[in-house]
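User: I've been trying to design a sequence by hand for this structure and keep getting stuck. Would you show me what you'd pick, starting by listing the structure so we're on the same page?

Assistant: Good idea, let's start from the same input. This is the structure you sent:
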């Protein structure tokens, strides 16, 4: 499948690399290709600059958000939550219309330091805001509840016996995203219903952040026992 991964951070890199490895045609989207390739500093989390990752992943090409989205059959939103709607607007509503969007973003507000707060919650979610801003897009919220390396290689933890979620209004889009998650190795994928289910997975973040602090690692996930 032709897939655009919007986002050059650790999530964009992880998802793009895994999709390319699985044989998909992957274009990574960024604001400014030259600026992204010219970065030499690690990001705020200490991850190496994009060019270093790109050199090791020649199968994934880099393009502007709009060029990446234009030819894609499926689009992944791996941009910072506070700017996701701006990034998707730059990608172009016309380039996104009718497509499936796997939305991994979280509505984290770091303006008052750590831990971040949620800039939308309770009666709304970032997933819903993206769906409302782009009504022709088939938004499926997924994978925002675990760290990037586990999104793409769930079997590295307890042999994959842990849970991920999908939420979205379009049944066919959820089937497409579920198949992708299965191809990554996920086996327990719970359908939370329509896109309002994103409220639950986004509001899981305060607990996720607290667990990361207590366990001193992001390498964990929840398993829903039933
Ligand atoms: N890190 C994790 O393990 C993890 C886990 C679950 C969910 N998430 C969520 O996944 C998303 C990506 O996380 P991340 O840590 O990989 O990267 P990030 O640092 O949150 O986001 C990086 C991306 O945001 C874009 N961006 C930044 N400012 C922008 C602006 N003003 N306008 C348009 N685009 C802008 C960057 O564009 P350029 O390429 O142009 O720089 C880059 O592609 C976030 O929403 C995060 O909350 C992360």
């Amino acid at each position: 499948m032709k897939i655009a991964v919007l986002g050059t951070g650790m999530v964009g890199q992880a998802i793009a690399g895994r999709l390319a490895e699985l044989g998909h045609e992957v274009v990574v989207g960024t604001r400014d290709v030259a600026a992204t390739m010219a970065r030499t500093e690690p990001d705020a989390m200490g991850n190496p600059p994009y060019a270093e990752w790109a050199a090791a992943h020649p199968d994934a090409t880099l393009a502007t958000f709009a060029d990446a989205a234009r030819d894609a059959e499926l689009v992944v939103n791996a941009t910072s939550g506070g700017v996701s709607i701006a990034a998707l607007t730059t990608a172009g509503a016309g380039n996104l219309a009718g497509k499936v969007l796997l939305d991994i973003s979280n509505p984290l507000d770091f303006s008052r330091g750590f831990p971040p707060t949620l800039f939308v919650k309770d009666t709304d979610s970032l997933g819903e805001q993206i769906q409302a801003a782009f009504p022709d897009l088939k938004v499926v919220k997924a994978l925002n509840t675990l760290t990037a390396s586990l999104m793409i290689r769930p079997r590295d933890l307890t042999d994959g016996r842990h849970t991920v979620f999908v939420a979205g209004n379009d049944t066919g889009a959820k089937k497409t995203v579920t198949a992708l998650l299965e191809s990554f190795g996920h086996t327990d994928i719970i359908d939370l219903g329509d896109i309002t289910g994103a409220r639950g997975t986004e509001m899981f973040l305060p607990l996720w952040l607290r667990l990361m602090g207590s366990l001193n690692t992001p390498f964990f996930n929840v398993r829903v026992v039933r």
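That's my pick for every position. To get oriented when you compare it with your attempt: The radius of gyration is 16 Å. The chain has a mean pLDDT of 98.
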